[in-house]
Amino acid sequence: MTGDFDAMYETFQALLESFPPSEAVKRLELFGIEQDVIERIRARHEEQMIRIKELEEPHAVVMGNRDTWYTGPQAKDKCWPAVARLLRKDGWPEDPAIRDLDDSSTRVVSLLNHPKEKSFSTRGLVVGYVQSGKTTNFTSVMAKAADRGYKLFIVLAGIHNGLRRQTQARLVQQLVEPNPSMWSQLTGLDKDFTPQENPAGYFGKSNRTHVLCVVKKNATVLRKLARWLEKASDYLEDCPALIIDDEADQATVATKSINPLIRDIMATLPRSAYVGYTASPFANLLIDPSAQDLYPRDFVVNLPKPAGHFGTEVLFGRYALDGEDEADVDDGHDMIRSVPTDDVPCVRPETKADIDGFEPVITDTLLRAIDYFWLVTAARRIRGTGNPHSTMLIHTSVNTAVHNSFKRPLERLRRRRAETLSDVAVVDRLRSLWDEETARVPAEEFGETRVPFESLLTELPDVLDSCRVIMDNSSSEDRLDYENGPVVAIAVGGNTLSRGLTLEGLSVSYFVRSVSAYDTLLQMGRWFGFRHGYADLPRIWMTDELAEWFRHLATVETEMRRDINVYMTEAETPLTFAVRLRTHPALRVTAAAKMRSAVTAAASYGGRRVQTHYFHTDAEWLRGNIDAARDLVAASLANAVRVEDRSAEGRFVFRNVPYDVVTDFLATYKFHEKSPENDPDLINAYIRKRVSSAGSLSRWNVAIVGTPNGDPFVFAPNVAVGRSVRARLADSLGPGSADIKTLMSRRDAAVDLSGGVGGLKEEAIMRERQVQLPDTGLLVLYPIDKTSEPVPPKKTRLPLDAEEHVIGVGLVFPKPRDEDSTVEKYISADLSGVRIEDEDFSLVEGDDA
Q1: From residue 749, how far is each of 39, 542, 721, 744 by CA, in Å?
Q2: 393 and which of 509, 587, 826, 842 could share a cystine (Cβ 3.0–4.6 Å)?
């Protein structure tokens, strides 16, 4: 009986090739199959649908009532099994890599419409990580969609020829070559789309092949494609199409020509699904959801970070999110090296007028970066594992004349280094560089073995001899080409190297370009990705300011992804959720044109912890905050209902202080200007709104948290605690400022609670606050020693080295019992003092190149 039922279920699956699930069930009824058997078939299909919907990864936010018709690959499939075979051949492990790819691509396909529906126009977004295998994911989605009957596949592959060619090559290798009789191609390796004479030859009923078209986001090319499809409209009624928009935040959103042309192409296709792929979805999530545009109204899928991926957070660390303890958030690997601001004019013209005749100087930091690259290449050859290519990226400007100006000095340096390998002083300097770098990042921490310097000397001559200096930009003929054997290259470039294009074996980057938006900055990070066999060796040379921007961006990125996951569990749809994007004083979220539909965020502090981690280090600024803190303590002594002297443990608590004592302090205490989340006007407005509307926050507990055995800091007569130690991050905010990253511990948020709360986690502490102090806020003062040596010594930390002792501030707000009060404020970037070079979009409007 089970065998009969299995055969009937296979019949149902065969029907799903031609009909959506509801129609397939009707066909079973027409076949005269008994109702209870049909119900069992429906139940099994429902089980499969639920399994796909409830996959632990990837998370998704989905428009309600979307049928999950696709329940995974079948034995008769051709395209997906071919992709999986090639990945196994390339060394992908079955578990977890291929299994995770199978699950995540199945989830995306399950959110597309059934190809036999009469008409559909789906819009979705898949959020991945920079250099994390997004191309492999959408190739797998295309393969599975092809196995189920999608016919036309249009891939929008960035705005540069290099990425389009790279994408075409990958898709041909993984989709076309394993099943050549199943595919027709409208584009080739060296040719973008050109109109074909006979559309019927591709889309007529006699042609059962799938059609592949990989095009640049270029107005001329897309216009040709739109017109050609319009001419083929008679044949497109029965042509389910999947449009994959790679780098979907680039050129797609709010552009005058590309955006309408993509929509024109979709309009010619009665059955079409548009799926954007991006690692920086900021612009896509700011499209007006109510407009007839490309907002991902049907689904947003959040791909998990693959094992072994080097992302923003891994390299730069990040700040704690709400509900996290700062001490539990890592500082990132010690792989970032500082480029002094004085070096920047040596490698990038200060103004446009300086471009003509610009000659870069090989500064000490650039020389160290290049020498280290050659040493790394030698070490990787000795190890003999991982990617056979070795690339260094130099990215200082988008201007092609600036790129070209590096050619001569870099070639001269390469020749000179080859000639001086027998020079004892040079060898000693290289040895010192290698010893220092391998000591700062021990190979053993990454499961690798350190390569001794003596072994490198035998490899260095050949490394230098095979190293090419390549100017890779929109006007150069000598481009990066990884298709003809192992490459050793120093690549100097701009936008062609900053989007989508994979720099194979990238191990060293020298990066000083200023940008104005999160998405541009994140996409510049070609150093993100996989580093199998050399995970201990990558290094990035950049300014301290850029490093801080990336740390902020890691926080934004983590918070955004957490929001998507939270919304998934709260049954939101893409049309009813809005991802919060925290602001930065020197960066826009995305280009101004892409933010026209953005609204001001409503700031609520209910249930949140707010704390300072940026400080100026000059005496005058710090003394002002010391005076403000002492005034607060004096006012708290005078107004508190009860004072708890717990100086033996380095603490004081002043209970039931009136709120105006706190708001007066916040009005005089100076927060660092790069701390938009610590906006005293916004915080005070929130407090007053809570007091007036709900009677909450009218009383506060004020605490002092120090150490029981540190040198004393006196706030008032008989009120003194030991000073705390908070070292600064090594790549801090530049001269005169410090970023300590960690101020407030989880335990400090419970300093005014009674009972044993020492082992409680953040959520439990906030719940306990709701029980004990539901309407009371907490303000904590931290006296920090001006020297603050790192304890224990940490490579990513330096002494605080302030001119006066520092006063840190933490605020804990109760979670409101009623509807929370919110306050709004625009926070815009002042870019007047920053020389910005944004992406060059002239290529999207110009003639096809």
Answers
A1: 55, 36, 18, 8
A2: 509
